[in-house]
Write a structure and sequence with these properties.
467 residues, FAD/NAD(P)-binding domain, 13 helices, five-stranded mixed beta barrel, Enolase-like, domain 1, binds flavin-adenine dinucleotide, 27% strand
Length: 467
Amino acid sequence: MENKQTSVAVIGGGPGGYVAAIRAAQLGKKVLLVEKSFLGGTCLNIGCIPSKALMSAAGLVAKMQQAAKMGITVSGVSVDMKKTQEWKSGVVQKLTSGVGQLCKGNGVEVLMGEAHFTGPRTLQVKAKSGEVEVQAENIILATGSVPTQIPGFPTDEQRVLSSTGALALTEIPKRLIVIGGGYIGLELGMLYAKLGSAVTVVEMMDQLLPGFEPELVRTIAAKVRKLGMSVYLKSKAANLEVLSNGVRLQVETQGKQESLEADYLLVTVGRRPNTAGLDLDKAGVRCNEAGFIPVDKRLKTAVEGIYAIGDVVGNPMLAHKASKEGEVVAEVIAGKAVELDYQAIPAVVFTDPEIATVGLSEAQAASAGYEVLTGKFPLAASGRALTMGETDGYIKVVADKKSHALLGASIIGAEASELIAEATLAIEMGAVVEDIGMTIHAHPSLAESFMEAAKATIGEAIHVLQK
Ligand code: FAD
């Protein structure tokens, strides 16, 4: 058996693991990155990137259909889903090969294979070339998450899909049922609705996007209706029959049973930490009740020399959280006095319009004991939003009444995913609302609306009437 010795072994090449590996190598460590399937992990291969690529394509179709209001006639729009998938795969391939080059360029050794523990500092890797034994001074677990399965609804990626199967379809379903109205279900549901599918969403809770402020969800719910999607709230998928050319789903809704049929069923009811097959017990690492690996703010597990980052350590399960943890853990191992500060992690839902939040919501700030100031600016009052024909939504700012420090922001509207960066930076730097108000923003831009919302907290907004 081949034997390797290293200073840092990273298990998992997703946005947590590959970033940790590169940063550790930059800091002078000898690094081995072990990945069992694909560099780039869930995010680049079957998550963030392929979903956003397909959403861009679907968004373009929807835009062309609405171009008439700008006096543009577009006819004969058709989608060749096979070609769209080829384009998407090209995007994925560029990015994943880029990760490989970055690893190489930084001196990270990549070993393709599945790792499991044989002791607290030893791993065995089933690689294509045979078994490899690895001895490492430090081990970083970055094994990510996998879709949650619900009993009775096993995904076969033929007719019953997880997000992975839904992102690989080479035809546009005529009818698609989505179980779960969370962010992945809604992003994919809206994507296919824009491509022409009749989409039905079945959600157990009493609103779409459970956990998000109802105020934000109302705008999305209106768009969902506009796209012709059907939504069953407070409803439970009860029984599934897989047919030769589709699925039949029994839904319990408001005390009744309804039977729905579709070409495909997409099951998106969340993700769970991926620790299967790691033999964590051989290293003495224990998971908590929810299956996550507990870590402290320096990403240390309870076992000396073993660290964990990304989806496998807990929510929010987001790529940029995983990457930041990857940088911090590498610096911890290199002896730097750093720890994670979770107060400004942005979260984006790539629905139409997009939703982006950072920091505390108004309700969270109040329950944390703050006296709260809020300011809101509707995009309907933004010159730039009007010129884009994208006036749905608003920007809301939450600040501390005493210090005027920015505590949080929520944005719903076009480019929310880009706009949230300014709010994140402001929170990170401890800005007060006056700092944002005094910053000159380019005109016409959507970002002006963030400045106006900040000024609205202290009654100084110019382009919206205030009480
Ligand atoms: P992962 O990316 O899951 O990587 C873990 C890696 O570990 C995998 O490559 C796996 O093969 C490997 N591995 C596991 N076990 C072993 C082993 N024993 N040996 C070797 N290798 C192993 N997040 C966002 O921030 N923005 C988005 O827009 C977004 N969209 C998403 C859309 C979808 C459809 C999905 C499913 C997810 C999305 N996410 C998004 C979430 C994001 O993908 C994850 O938060 C992120 O990938 C987590 O990174 P990670 O490094 O912790 O784990």
